[in-house]
Known about the structure:
This protein is an all-alpha fold. It is 60% helix and 0% strand. α2 (29-38) packs across α3 (44-58).
Amino acid sequence: MKDDLKQIIDQIGEEQRKDPLGLLAGATSLEFHQAVYRNASLPISTRQRSAQAALPFEYPKLAVQMNISNFAEELEAAIERAQLRSAQMKQVNQPKLIEAKRSGLRRL
């Protein structure tokens, strides 16, 4: 059992020695670029180029998407809803009219 474990560890060590960056056989391109820009023994220009290549995959850009298939119809519906709400608010906010009854004049 110990011999099998030691053999596996040696095999992994040989694979890592074969690749100067220490990447495993199934490493992705992103992992490659990360290994390059984290390797202090490489020239800074090489590391910077790898950092630039990896950047879009580490921090993707935010994008705005909009469906404009029925934009005109949706805009008309939104305007109509806004006008309806405005009319309702005017009715709600109108002060109640109280009619006063005229009585005789009072003098002091």
